[in-house]
């Protein structure tokens, strides 16, 4: 048996690894039971997160009952996938507007509208999304969700992964959950964009996007689930902690998205669409398809202030 004080893990070095052993894989909030869907087929892709929706044409306006069932599916599965959706950019935006006003992001390249972000990746223009993150947490009110459409799919690779951050919170050790209750963290766009944006571009935007504070643990405004709400792209430090203590705690919290049991991985096909709850998830775009081209367009739905 390994001595926990052995040189492999010195006693004076905090263990910030992922906890081993059985996991609590709770897909629904306490007291909520799974119910069938009447207006479409649903095929789960994971235990707690990710489902393919069958029998819905995103190019057609949603009826009230269909929108309600899709919303329930989104809250239950956190990310929904739709294949074989030959839709236009405007139809993509019209679908997303069923959940609210669309936001713009002047920090990223735009498509045919300022509400559309276009990601065109080649070997000469590599991807920078291959880090676990939640979109635009550097804003006072981060996005509610996003709808991503693959315009061009590489012959291999280019998958996207999502992690259920409610499951991540549930599986933290009890002492860590107690420790982070009530803590707040600072989120800043600069660290996430400094990897590929020029210093002048960053400096010009800092007045428009100043750092903001959010709770380390967010309560989902609809389901009531507690979700871990820090990410390595934008979270810089925890308020009130010394830098070393903050860095150590954030490393532990960031690592939770890496647990496979909390994840779903989606292999894109032509005309596939993903719709995810940005309040409950993190995602990671796998950058393994060079020198091939991958083109995606995303629209984001304006959200509310985390609490």
TrEMBL record:
The gene is tauD. Keywords: Dioxygenase, Iron, Metal-binding, Oxidoreductase. GO terms for biological process: sulfur compound metabolic process. This is Taurine dioxygenase. Residues 43-298 form the TauD/TfdA-like domain. GO terms for molecular function: metal ion binding; taurine dioxygenase activity. Pfam families: TauD. InterPro entries: AtsK-like, TauD-like_sf, TauD/TfdA-like. SUPFAM superfamilies: Clavaminate synthase-like. It comes from the Bacteria. Belongs to the TfdA dioxygenase family. GO terms for cellular component: cytoplasm.
């Amino acid at each position: 048996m390994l001595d926990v004080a052995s040189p492999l893990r010195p006693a004076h070095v905090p263990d910030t690894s992922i906890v081993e052993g059985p996991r609590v894989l709770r897909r629904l909030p306490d007291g909520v039971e799974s119910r069938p869907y009447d207006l479409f087929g649903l095929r789960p892709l994971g235990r707690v997160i990710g489902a393919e929706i069958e029998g819905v044409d995103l190019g057609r306006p949603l009826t009230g009952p269909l929108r309600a069932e899709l919303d329930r599916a989104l809250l239950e599965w956190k990310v929904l996938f739709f294949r074989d959706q030959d839709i236009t950019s405007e139809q993509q935006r019209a679908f997303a507007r069923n959940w609210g006003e669309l936001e713009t992001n002047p920090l990223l390249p735009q498509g045919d509208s300022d509400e559309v972000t276009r990601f065109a990746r080649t070997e000469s223009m590599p991807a920078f999304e291959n880090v676990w993150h939640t979109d635009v947490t550097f804003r006072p009110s981060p996005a509610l969700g996003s709808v991503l459409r693959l315009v061009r799919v590489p012959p291999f690779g280019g998958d996207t992964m999502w992690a259920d951050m409610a499951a991540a919170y549930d599986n933290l050790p009890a002492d860590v959950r107690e420790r982070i209750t009530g803590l707040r963290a600072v989120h800043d766009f600069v660290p996430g964009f400094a990897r590929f944006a020029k210093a002048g571009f960053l400096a010009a935007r800092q007045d428009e996007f100043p750092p903001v504070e959010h709770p380390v643990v967010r309560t989902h405004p609809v389901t009531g689930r507690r979700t871990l709400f820090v990410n390595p792209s934008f979270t810089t430090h925890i308020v009130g902690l010394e830098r070393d203590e903050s860095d150590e705690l954030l490393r532990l919290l960031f690592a939770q998205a890496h647990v496979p049991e909390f994840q779903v991985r989606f292999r894109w096909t032509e005309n596939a669409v993903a719709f995810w709850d940005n309040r409950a998830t993190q995602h990671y775009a796998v950058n393994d398809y060079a020198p091939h081209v991958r083109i995606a367009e995303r629209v984001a739905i304006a959200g509310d202030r985390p609490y």
